[in-house]
Amino acid sequence: MNPAEEILDIVDARDRVLGQAPRGEVYARRLRHRCVFVLATAPDGRVFVHRRAATKMTFAGYYDMFVGGVVGTGESYEQAALREAEEELGVSGLPQPAPALKFLYEAPEDTADTARGGGGEAGEAGPFGWWSWVYQVPLTLPVRPQAEEIDWHGFLTEEEIDARLGDRDWTPDSLAAYALLKSWRAKERG
Question: What's the average pLDDT block by block, 10 residues per block, for the chain (190 residues)?
Fold first, then answer.
């Protein structure tokens, strides 16, 4: 299926479903929808990091420390997290990713230009953004990332990621999710 034709739930500021629309329309009209971020870590704690393929609908060629994507209509966040992680990593049999936190990402006004190379009008569901659940999953399987999704990948320590945050184009929503996850972990530790 063409990704632009995938049907997504349109949600409000409280994550209540208002209706459905194809992904291409959701992006073009800047409608609020749902998304998942999955931090995949190797047994030694290094994080799966990748550069998004040049053909992606949003943030093509940007770096990302999460795998994930949109939640399809009628799909739960949990289902989307496992599906997206297995698809993008090119594996099957992952454990169910563990939920960490939920947040509403409000995209900057220029996101349409940065993400898709074109403008967009304000959506009826409110400012452009997406309700996002952040998950974590351990990797014990070798990965075979989807070529359609990922141009490059590697495993980096969090210190190596932090050192590279200023010298590469990272997806802005993942930067927000990463900062929130680090803060959440610090609170969980005590």
Answer: 90 95 92 97 97 90 96 96 96 96 86 41 61 96 90 96 93 96 91
pTM for the whole structure: 0.89
Question: What 3-state class would DSSP assign to 132?
Answer: strand
What is the residue-wise DSSP string for 65-123?
Answer: S-EEEEPBTT--HHHHHHHHHHHHHT-S-PPPPEEEEEEEEE--TTHHHHHHSS--PPB
β-partners of residue 103 are: 132
Query: Is 88 labeled as ligand-binding?
Result: yes
Rounded CA-CA distance 89/41 in Å is: 12
Q: Structural domains in the chain? A: 3-189 (3.90.79.10)
For residue 20, list its beta bridge partners. 9
